[in-house]
Amino acid sequence: MALAAKPYLQRITALFGAEVDWDSHPYNVPAVQALESIDFHADVTFFIGENGAGKSTVLEAIALALGFSLDGGNFNVSRLNSAQEQAPLVRALRLQKSFKFPQDRYFLRAETFHHVASFLDAANDRTSSSKASLHTRSHGEAFMDVMLGRLTGKGLYLLDEPEAALSPNRQLAALRLIHQLVQDQSQFIIATHSPILLAYPNAKILLFDDTGITEVAYEDTEHYAITRDFLNHYPRRLAQLFAPE
Ligand SMILES: Nc1ncnc2c1ncn2[C@@H]1O[C@H](COP(=O)(O)OP(=O)(O)OP(=O)(O)O)[C@@H](O)[C@H]1O
């Protein structure tokens, strides 16, 4: 049987040393405390969970361990970002990778997208569909430009809440793009709250919560259940929400 190129990132294992202070960030986050290992799906792995559950903390540590900048972007941004601050969790992570390197890599974060856009403008790296400065585009347009224009396939892509900038319609477009890139030998690891993105077929969905990190089925996620219930019954749910105590 031929060896599979994907997943490029197969597994992370956390080895915590005796020096770890479990009372301080990031080790006081329950999902980090419970982190032993994560096996990634060859196509798409999602990190989900409440705000503050630790999704970005773990995704960021993986990104840094892979050589990305904290700000995100590709490896060019990483190399030119000398102010790289090493997150402590990185030191605990061991990465198990495929024999094959991805041809493309990108760490896309809504939070720091402004910095990456500035870097790309300064480098005059305007390969986006608009060919314009990313700063003259809306947040969502610029985010979509990066996804459409810079993710070139056969890649390993880490996305942190990509939906933050995207309309529901653009989230559908992002889903289609993710599918095209998966079919072109790409792997995604995505932290998200979007019930639209989470619908990606056969993805591995990992729920971060107080008990640790567990795999869940799409229709068992709160994202699916709450959104579906609210949209189907929103007048009643609004009345319940706004009722006096
Ligand atoms: N630099 C920091 N110093 C101390 N605590 C931090 C720091 N960054 C994050 N935290 C805390 O760590 C916890 C996990 O944060 P993280 O950003 O990983 O959550 P998240 O699951 O990505 O949340 P969200 O869905 O809101 O983005 C939170 O309680 C947060 O307040």
UniProtKB/TrEMBL annotation:
InterPro entries, per the entry: AAA+_ATPase (IPR003593), ABC_transporter-like_ATP-bd (IPR003439), ATPase_AAA_core (IPR003959), P-loop_NTPase (IPR027417), Rad50/SbcC_AAA (IPR038729), Siderophore_ABC-ATPase (IPR051535)
Can you quote a single GO CC term? plasma membrane
Share an example GO biological-process annotation for this protein.
double-strand break repair
Q: Which residues form a coiled coil?
A: none
Q: Which SUPFAM superfamilies match?
A: P-loop containing nucleoside triphosphate hydrolases (SSF52540)
As for subcellular location, the record says: Cell membrane
User: What Gene3D superfamilies does the record point to?
Assistant: P-loop containing nucleotide triphosphate hydrolases (3.40.50.300)
The ABC transporter domain covers which part of the protein?
10-235
Q: Which UniProt keywords apply?
A: ATP-binding, Cell membrane, Ion transport, Iron, Iron transport, Membrane, Nucleotide-binding, Transport
Kindly indicate whether the keyword Ion transport belongs to this entry: yes
Membrane topology note: Peripheral membrane protein
Protein name, as recorded: DNA replication and repair protein RecF
Q: Which organism is it from?
A: Duganella phyllosphaerae
